[in-house]
Amino acid sequence: MSRFFKTAADTDSSSEESDEELLSSGDDTPAKPAAVQQKTPMSQFLKTAGDSSSSSSSSDSDSDDSDSDDSDDKPAAVQKPRPSTFLVGGGGGRDDDDSSEDERKVVKSAKDKRIEEMQAIGKSIDNALRIGDWVATSNDFDKLARLVERQTNVSEPVPPYWLRALVTVENALTATKEKDPKKKVNASNSRAQNGMKQKVKKATKEHEALLKTYNEDPEKFERDYIQALAPPPVAPREVRPAQPAGAAAAGQAGETDEFTTVGRGGKGVQHTVETLFKDLAQVNENRGKKNTDRVEQVRTLEKLLTVAVTTYQRIRVLLALISARFDYNPAASHMPNDAWLAAQKELDQLVKILIHEPTYSVEEEVNFEYDELLERSPTTEEGGIVRIRGSVISFVDRLDDEFTRSLQNIDPHGTEYIERLRDEKVLYKTICLSQSYFERASRDEALARVLMRRLEHIYYKPDAVVEALEQIPDIDETTRPSLSLQTCEKAQSLVHSICISLYKTSNSLLRTRAMLCHIYSHALHNDFYTARDMMLMSHLQENVHSADVGTQILFNRTVVQLGLCAFRCGLIKESQSTLQDIFATQRVKELLAQGLHQQRYSTLTPEQEKAERIRQMPFHMHINTELAEAVFLVASMLVEIPLLASLDTEEARRKAVSKSFRRLLDHANRQVFNGPPENTRDHIMQASKALQDGEWQRARDLIQSIAIWNLMPESKQVKEMLAKRIQEEGLRTYLFTNAPYYTTLSLELLSRIFSLSLRSVTSIVSKMIWNEELAASLDQAGGVVVFHRVEPNKLQQLALSLSEKVAQLVEQNEKALDVKLGGGSGWTDRGDGKGGDKRGGEATGGGGERRGARTGTRGGVRGRGRGARFAQGLGGQIGGAQAVRT
């Protein structure tokens, strides 16, 4: 006990005596006296940390009681003992562990503490993501963000640990989207996950440039960060200071641009020109194997690309590198944007090399085997052309498909979708470069495929957007394709030229899709008659049911656009009959690939639902279904309301041209109280009822107040056209309804009631009389319409009823025959006569031949449905007999 409380004087004296004796003694010096030996343990105890504890233990046994007594007599010296010079750091009487802790505390700076804390938080985030704990992830993410903000305030660079955490959390969020959405998730965990999406999105946008640099080479970014934090050397030494790993020593003589990669076991792997083909073969061999690091493979290929010297080497490495880019994580829904952009740039580089080096050719089928470990050049090849196994068109197809898939999985109502859509311009540039290469290489099949890809990007766009897309600054005269906006001058002419080129190909599927795109383009530019004639002459509606699903979706989109075009041109009947087949199915979104149809009694399997989602069109290609529905219902209103007024019997009223419109109208008529209209359907139904009652002004106001018309091009002209058509159909409805109650009716009165010119009223009435829709005659001298009241006798009523029943039997027989022969029983070739407009003519289908049977031969000939032949026969004769009697 006295040994621990010796005074400073005792310690010094004992130390001096022990030192003198040690200096004076030699190897053969006899043992020290006991008095001297009793003083030495103190000096042994106060040795440095390197000494063993054996000496201190032995000194305990040899200490006497006199020392302890002396120490007890001096309590004042215990308070402030002088540190011994033998202690490391002058720590006084503290032990070795305390001194080592003080030493570590002195060495560790605030900067090092922050780095260690950030590393610890990064590990905690990884552990929380591994178990799916988003609450802990959010808390740790906030801590890390605060540390980074504190470090930024002291003018230090952004640490790589923060960027690594951003990338890790973003990948985890992406992988979570692909999991089963029906799986129950904790509410707090779900809220934390949604909050993390916003935090990561905000941080990613803030550090976008740094993230791009970090993703290119994380190891180099971390080395640069460590080098930036390292203090400058105090003074130069003879020993050369170690440079950061991977730093290029450009000023050293004799060194090359080669670099060293550390492989397994710490052995260095050098990539040189001599070992390029061997390393490339090894990467290709490991591709697709289990536990293969895809990121490391991409990095190796990037390094090989910088090593490649000859054209052949660059082409071989680029082919392998682009393929490796597409080997992304299969659990992800789409390819990451940075990897996609890198693949696009490398594909552009490959295509430019092939354009400027015509002696090198990349072909899918190479008829001879060649050694992939040997260098090849045009001088050693047969014909002077180096043929390399590969496929450029498959890269273009995959790049385009990945771009579409990314748009399908991005929220279309956010800014991310717009930012991603901007990449379409660089993709379009790649497609144009590929087209230029295939034209120079005379690859007809690949050229047709890439032309189809180019057409699918422009056929649905307005002219202004196509012109902006065609302005590609990186394409010069040597790489510009033959078909461009500079040669065609107009966007519609460019689409026409591309379609003409595709019509010459031998691939029937490409020809069909090109025809549909061409029709869509004409309909988009309000050229209805050209689009309709192309549709009828190509007979696409007859064999489209045998095409693939993508082509059927394109056909449905073309039909809807054709109906919208007819409506914009004021062709109401053509618009109604064209849109009838689509809207009669009640599955508009599913037919247009703009959403999934929720069926009540059937559920889709996960595989079927996944396949349906893959077929969905990107949001910017959607056709506004609400606008299309408004067009269809308004056109049905203008066709159905006069027809309902012209029918006499209740049985005839039940046979409608548009069953879907008639169902909505019947539901509206059954309502006891009708409030103000709230949506598009309410506006149209109340306008229909007003038109039936002769209130055409109210019907016009209700139709023009629909806000959806503002989304249609030239909305002002469309509203004016609708107002005029409502006036005309209101006049027709008024004449059909009130004809039994009038003997004569003044044309001038009709002109004032419906705000039409006298010439327009005379024209409409004359046309109705000529078409035998109105049993009347026109007295032009008196300016009146003279009505003829003629009621069919009993025999004629029975004959008409018989003709209707026979017409139904004929239709049923033809339907049964089609089913037996496997003919078009789908909605694209309906058996009830409603597809009559597609076969030529302007009839309204089955309703056309039924009206023909009632009003005479003229009305019967107008029917071009399946019952048209019968309308020209028995029904036409009966109707003709009635017309003669009238």
Strand order of the largest sheet: 5-7-6
Q: From the structure provided, what is the oligomeric state, counting identical versus distinct chains?
A: single chain
Distance between the termini: 141 Å
Quickly count the domains. 5
How helix-rich are the residues, as a percent range?
Answer: 55-70%
Strand content: under 5%
By secondary-structure content and strand pairing, the structural class works out as: mainly alpha
Count of DSSP H/I helices: 42
Mean of all residue-level pLDDT scores: 75
Basic shape? elongated
**Poorly predicted ranges (pLDDT <50, ≥5 residues)?**
1-80, 83-106, 234-259, 824-886
Number of strands: 7
What's the alpha carbon Rg, rounded to whole Å?
44 Å
The largest sheet is: 3 strands, antiparallel
Subcellular location: Cytoplasm
Domain PCI: 619-792
Biased composition (Acidic residues): 13-22, 61-72
Subunit structure: Component of the eukaryotic translation initiation factor 3 (eIF-3) complex.
Short recap of the structure:
By secondary structure, the protein is mainly α. It contains 42 helices and seven strands.
Notes on the structure:
The protein has 5 domains: 2-107, no CATH class; 122-178 and 189-227, no CATH class; 276-506, no CATH class; 625-741, no CATH class; 794-885, no CATH class. Helix 2 runs antiparallel to helix 3 (54-62) and helix 30 (625-646) runs parallel beside helix 33 (680-692). It is built from 42 helices and 7 strands. Strand 6 (776-779) and strand 7 (784-787) form a beta hairpin. 61% of the residues lie in helices and 3% in strands. Strands 5-7-6 form a 3-stranded antiparallel beta sheet. The chain has 886 residues and is mainly α.
